Records
---
Amino acid sequence: MKITEETISVNTKHRNQMIDITSQVSSLVRQSPITAGDVIVYCPHTTAAITINENADPDVCHDILLTMSQLFPQHRAGYRHAEGNSDSHCKSSLFGCSEQILISNNSLSLGTWQGIYFCEFDGPRNRKVIVQIRGE
Amino acid sequence: MKITEETISVNTKHRNQMIDITSQVSSLVRQSPITAGDVIVYCPHTTAAITINENADPDVCHDILLTMSQLFPQHRAGYRHAEGNSDSHCKSSLFGCSEQILISNNSLSLGTWQGIYFCEFDGPRNRKVIVQIRGE
Amino acid sequence: MKITEETISVNTKHRNQMIDITSQVSSLVRQSPITAGDVIVYCPHTTAAITINENADPDVCHDILLTMSQLFPQHRAGYRHAEGNSDSHCKSSLFGCSEQILISNNSLSLGTWQGIYFCEFDGPRNRKVIVQIRGE
């Protein structure tokens, strides 16, 4: 098994934002020696996440973030965490801090409409994403 | 490391539906040459998901879908995406488009009550699921 | 590729509880012969989950559990599942039953503030967690 690992930098501009990182991940896969296997896209932050969703119509991301803001408002009676970002931590656990995408023929096996997103839930911040590519 | 990859077809009948695909995944694992490792069950669609939950009492799936429909109604003030399925995209990111199950002795290491479900959130549609089995 | 698998026991004390299992997982990684690769932390139960979130301020876990209890109350009109834990099954699918963490230099590559949590959503119970370590 071959394993390569790279880091992507993401600078976010808003408190809640979905940033398409598909092309960066795809480039790293094509530059790797791996033709079959998988890539793990891992977010080492606790108020952000990685998700896979539609990257054709940007209104989809707008509507996802709107929904999350309504269900998880920044302030909630009973919150104790003094940083004021308990909503961000909730969203991080619900979306999850990593995604795994299959690799065939040295390319990402994403569905037709799928893109890989870095989800910022407590920006703006300078973030990083770890990309581990594994296989044969 | 050995890697095999297969595709399962799933034809859904309702807008929201959980379909147990455990037996199909289990068969692919047993037919593979892999005795220890893992299987990735990957959904290449952006309005569907893969989850693991109880497969003993079908009322569990009923209650999960009821909960999701109440928290994520199809229409919400402010939605922009013209296809009318923004709720489906939200559910897809929250449940996640893949699950990973361990393999021991050429069999799935699921818990006693666990089954693998394809989650349709914008059906009825003809869907596919990619199953990658990896290990020794 | 080398693969090792171990089991951790977790005894929960409350109906909803997040228990930090980072040190146990970290010890298993250090005891393994694997220097680069990943670890899958897998929960074989359908009313519990695994998540990664902040382990510096315990108020973060308090606020996450508070949020989940408010959005997913134990009783909801229309629930059919007779065990009275449909909310627990929902939370399990939303948080997800496994997490994958990268390994570098025979150590977990967690972010500065990240810890690995076993999430109990229908306790108190005696639970187990499967830890599969894979790589070179």
---
Amino acid sequence: MSNVEDALSELRNFVQEREWAQFHSPENLAKSIAIESGELLECFQWSGETGDAERVQSELADVLTYCLLLADRLGANPEELVLQKLQHTRTKYPVDKARGRSTKYDRL
Amino acid sequence: MSNVEDALSELRNFVQEREWAQFHSPENLAKSIAIESGELLECFQWSGETGDAERVQSELADVLTYCLLLADRLGANPEELVLQKLQHTRTKYPVDKARGRSTKYDRL
Amino acid sequence: MSNVEDALSELRNFVQEREWAQFHSPENLAKSIAIESGELLECFQWSGETGDAERVQSELADVLTYCLLLADRLGANPEELVLQKLQHTRTKYPVDKARGRSTKYDRL
Amino acid sequence: MSNVEDALSELRNFVQEREWAQFHSPENLAKSIAIESGELLECFQWSGETGDAERVQSELADVLTYCLLLADRLGANPEELVLQKLQHTRTKYPVDKARGRSTKYDRL
């Protein structure tokens, strides 16, 4: 069974072998995340259907890869980032106000 | 120590309490990833410097959160998506051709 | 000399010949703008230099095309949208406070 | 009646008064287009309906504004960019193959 630490270890090795750390500034990684998220969105450009599930997974993998590299560059643990933010989001969207509604918190 | 399975379990619970699964189609999650990646990029809009590291981490957390939710919706394991894609990327960027260069594979 | 009305007239004809208006919901056009803006950003993924000016112009043309189609779909005049928004932005960024600074209005 | 040259002239004046040209590198403008296109997409995050038409127009205005500034920075005429690209797209999507279909050109 794989976990994030394994994935990060492989990614670090992949980057080091190619001497690519020099290109991986936080800014360049943030641009890369935006670029890859556009490619993911392209899977749904003209229809909401998941036509090609394999392609969706492949594009999602690219977004995730750059997210892990950025977290690593910032010295942050990806799971902890998610869990910390979730604590904050819970308070912005209390269950009794947010249930069954997609309204943004500032209009709840 | 937290791991992705813990984060996903908390996220699933958060979504279920709010009855939000109805909004989380793959298409809507892909849009959400693109939207949040724009907010992450905004941290670097006018400068490549990481001015506000806390804000960068907070925006990255949002992108990661929607990535985990989309992987979960597709029945995929996030770490395995990353590792599978890495196998593919290794063959597109052989070490001897790609070392120290940011050139795209189709122009290597 | 060309103007926006000429460009829109050609675009409308292009779309009509191909019976593509059915795909051009505001939502799909907004997704398309985000997708193409990712391709534009890819020109600057690893460097701030404008390496390939022709490619930058070609990707910018794609973003602009979908912007014109969306304005048309909304019954709005693109130049007037820009000028109206500029009136608003002037008040958010008074010259004496904003001069020479890239700070966002809510922190000026 | 306004046209693009009027809008550009006002934009140039707005930028000059604030001494903002120093921030408007092609790269920063490309990032800005991606950021604003994310805000436009947010109008359709959870639904394909155009709920708030005024907000959609306001976000579209932001994308358009940065597109005009980038075209100007590159010394290009926005309408001509659109018309030149359209010539190219016509050949990629011949009417008889593309009619009524949203298929990408490389799979037509």
---
Amino acid sequence: MKIKIILSCLLLLMCLAGFSQEKKSGKGKKKSSAVIEKGLVKVSVMYPFAEGKTFNMEYYETKHMPMVAGFLGSNLVKYTIEKGTASGIPNTPLPFMAIGSFYVKDLAAYQAAIAPNRDAIRADFPNYTNASPIILVSEVVK
Amino acid sequence: MKIKIILSCLLLLMCLAGFSQEKKSGKGKKKSSAVIEKGLVKVSVMYPFAEGKTFNMEYYETKHMPMVAGFLGSNLVKYTIEKGTASGIPNTPLPFMAIGSFYVKDLAAYQAAIAPNRDAIRADFPNYTNASPIILVSEVVK
């Protein structure tokens, strides 16, 4: 009788342990699907290519982008960097040397975070490029 | 004595059960990090904004992009759509109305898949826009 009770308790414990693990992995899944971008605001800083324009990707990736990302706090969901390699239309020049994009939850919060740091951001431009970026604000549709 | 053996066996089972759950959630994590984009080729089709230019996002999202994605097969890792809403630089016009991007493993395979379908793709343009896109091929750095 005693054994049966102990066994029942242990079985119950096993079920609970299994359940808690399931919940944990469920949370893990939720976390990874939290990087779904649909609905976020994307701010893309695009550096057009032209004769004589230069871009130091190593500085941009290791210094400039982490600095700007640091200003954005928890509003920033993720940021991406891409290096332009070619135009997809034959016999046309490379449109952009590089694009850095910030995926944020709220545009007003992004602007409020950038405003007091705009001079520091602009002062860093000559460290990696002599091109003037264009900036696209967009909504992630898919 | 018998009880001790049974208890030991059950404890061992519990440990094994816990371990297998851990492994499962580990696998889950691996799967979600498989969508990491670094190193992929990104082909961005960008529709510039100008006076009189139009763009039907609903058609683009539900018809055009799925059609093109269908041509790319397993080379396509994912595709994204964004809707341009503003320029990030005050007093400058919206740079792009929309951007559709294909993240592929291999550029040559992308080109080989698009080539025989180029006419069908172009013939679909008037169904959603009167703008001519520019196309940027880039490498995902981060």
---
Amino acid sequence: MTDQASITRISDEIAKRVKSRLSESDSLSNPPSFNPREKVLIPVSVSGRHIHMTREVLESLFGKGHDLGIYRKLSQPGEFAATEQVTVVGPSGRAIEKVRVLGPPRKFTQVELSRSDGMRLGLELPVRRTGDLSGSPGITVIGPAGTVVLSHGAICATRHVHMTGEDARAFGLRDGQIVRARFAGERGVILENVLIRVSDRFALDFHLDTDDSNSAGIDTGCFAEIIP
Amino acid sequence: MTDQASITRISDEIAKRVKSRLSESDSLSNPPSFNPREKVLIPVSVSGRHIHMTREVLESLFGKGHDLGIYRKLSQPGEFAATEQVTVVGPSGRAIEKVRVLGPPRKFTQVELSRSDGMRLGLELPVRRTGDLSGSPGITVIGPAGTVVLSHGAICATRHVHMTGEDARAFGLRDGQIVRARFAGERGVILENVLIRVSDRFALDFHLDTDDSNSAGIDTGCFAEIIP
């Protein structure tokens, strides 16, 4: 990010937060049960529905030797939203188009959907950590060069925060810890069962799905307050 | 409700709650900041998108002298989901079909949508109490006998609980109070800015929109714990 872009982002964020504070209702001016002087604030990225895939699935959907194009870099180092998109179909017979492929290819194929996507597709999606796919429902994935019928791999991702070891020490949090996260505002929520994931390969970022972001009225660029 | 139906409903609810408790993570076995021995539990109804309308708008959409049919009675005495449905269109040019009409006709026309509906229609929906429509965006409503272009009336309803004066006294709550509401489970949330509405014309019921219910993974028939 250039300095100019940083300044714009920070300014927008401050404006948004001030506006949000001003619109807070009476319940929020009462002292909360946690100490507001020790707030842990974490930037948020809203994760739209997306698919991670193996190289084998990638080639079945897009053709032999196909490499993913980079549409946009993501917050996690090396990760990117690809130019490629797929269609997914569930047992309801209904399809969801333009599901973004994330790269680079992984060791497993995983379709991350919201609960409302699951209802549309006729899938009861389990809430799972990434890669924990045993017993998850199957789904059909359609690309320009072919269709893959996955026997499992459709999940609703566990709410989670990525952070480095240094971040975790600074915040007093540890890998695998379950916390709550608060979003202020007129549609304020406190999300429970948020998983802290610590690795020096990560960058600080809170990943939410679109059901959560729509409920709370938040967008990428907002901040969440972690309540240990 | 017949006794048999009551038993079925209670059994289903207990099964659901036990399942939910078993799936709760570590964060929930820690003592919460409120006293769990004094829980105020309120039944929840998920409100899909719907429209209340004046008799004038009703006749413009469905024809002169048209009366609403009763599709299903609602929790609030006298209120019903009508057999009639409409299509709504916003500035994005996209339509949402099968928006349920609620009866009986009211003194104002109000379209209650979720934030994700608003995004689809190209509307920035304000969060409002029922009937508080000044400055809310307009929307086009299409029925079998005509189309009405509303200059205002599209809102995202404030999260609210209906209760009688007797309920309010029992729970130690008052009309207009803003509370928090907790839903347990692996997608647990605490919703903030929930409005308590007290009237002896009401029946006890917590009204949530589909963004909130999808975020929390809950359905009509669940219970919310009120945190004053």
